[in-house]
Design goal:
By secondary structure, the protein is an alpha/beta fold.
Length: 393
């Protein structure tokens, strides 16, 4: 049995999304910026996809949706675009210490260009205090960028409350909702955000497509230059087929969200209860309730996460440690460190992220295998021998 428990990294594409894309990978191949019939056909489809995405997040105007290539590009466009547009007024940016690297490294890049960034802390459960955001505002603050839900722990930030506290003239508020979209209800008006990032391959859509919501009137400097695609906010020929796949996946994910959230929460809680009950020294990372229904992050004292990932992979089970984009890095999780975890003592965090295909039988299979694997890796570590999982290679 092969068991995929890494849906926060990517998801399998829904057949319905692929089916919707296929005509635009074949006969309907027109460039959406051409004025002839082929181009107009593609343009209509692109605008329909834009309307679907706008409706899925409560946006009033489809023109507020900018199609881009990835969640990383959406974050870069939002942060750099708003920062450079606001630079005449100030250079101060607020973010958190547990953001995805698409946000953190973008902010670090801006620091090298003369901007100042405040990295707000989180507590031991991964939560951010909205009052700390308000206390950190300065006269020259121009941008706040805080994630909606953490990709490693699933912890949900109180974005709507922060939006209320931080609503001041001249401050742009961005949220990276890549993990939240399709798993939590999202309404940009209720959240009070000016910019919001989402991605296709996290919701059973295609890779290579994402979107950035831009509230009308929000000033941004584009970071790609060329034609006037996406109303001058993102140059480059639009990926019509992928945009259609994203829109179809969004419809299906949002439509089934409530029922699926309940199902995944039950499976996640069963997984956690089994692990914590069967394995001594296991510890959940992140708030018990205020997190995504599909995500569980657990540390195993005396067992490093890389050995566990390899061991589980040899058994046909896919999990991860942190973000997929940082795989191969030897650095401990910046998220767990910000929460006060000590990877050398507590063990690194293993992320289990469930999805549409996850079944109760798969959860039980993982629970049957995991205690023995942890015991073997702990024994190898205590003796100074290589972990058995790595020795097989």
């Amino acid at each position: 049995m092969r068991i995929y428990l890494d849906h926060n990294a990517t998801t399998p594409m829904r057949p319905e999304a692929l089916e919707a894309m296929m005509p635009y990978l074949g006969a309907r191949f027109g460039n959406a910026n051409s004025i002839h019939g082929w181009g107009r056909e593609a343009k209509r489809a692109l605008e329909e996809a834009r309307q679907v995405i706008a409706s899925a997040i409560g946006a009033r105007e489809k023109e507020s949706i900018v199609f881009v290539s990835s969640g990383t590009e959406a974050d870069n466009l939002a942060i750099k675009g708003a920062a450079w547009a606001g630079r005449p007024r100030g250079r101060h940016i607020l973010t958190s210490a547990v953001e995805h690297h698409a946000v953190l490294n973008t902010c670090r890049s801006l620091e090298e260009q003369g901007f100042e960034v405040t990295y707000l802390p989180v507590d031991s459960e991964g939560l951010i205090d909205p009052e700390s955001v308000q206390r950190s505002l300065r006269a020259d603050t121009i941008l706040i960028s805080l994630m909606h839900a953490n990709n490693e722990t699933g912890v949900i930030f109180p974005i709507a409350k922060i939006g209320q506290l931080a609503r001041q003239p001249g401050i742009v508020f961005h949220t990276d909702a890549v993990q939240a979209f399709g798993r939590l209800p999202i309404d940009v008006e209720a959240l009070g955000v000016d910019l919001l990032s989402l991605s296709g391959h996290k919701i059973h859509g295609p890779k290579g497509i994402a979107a950035l919501y831009v509230r009308p009137g929000t000033r941004m400097v584009p970071h790609l230059h060329g034609g006037q695609q996406e109303r001058g906010r993102r140059a480059g020929t639009e990926n019509v087929a992928a945009a259609i796949g994203l829109a179809r996946a969004a419809e299906l994910s949002v439509g089934s969200m409530d029922v699926e959230a309940d199902r995944l929460r039950r499976l996640r809680d069963r997984l956690e209860a089994g692990i914590l009950g069967r394995i001594e020294g296991a510890q959940r990372n992140g708030h018990t309730d205020r997190r995504l229904p599909n995500t569980s992050n657990i540390s195993f004292r005396g067992a490093d996460e890389e050995s566990l990932i390899f061991a589980l992979d040899l058994e046909g089970i896919a999990v991860s440690a942190g973000a997929a984009c940082t795989s191969g890095s030897l650095e401990p999780s910046h998220v767990l460190q910000a929460m006060g975890r000590r990877p050398d003592i507590d063990g690194g965090g293993l992320r289990f992220s469930l999805g549409a295909g996850t079944t109760e039988a798969e959860i039980e299979c993982a629970l049957d295998l995991l205690p023995g694997l942890v015991e073997r890796i702990r024994a190898a570590a205590a003796s100074g021998r290589p972990a058995p999982a790595l020795a097989y290679g």
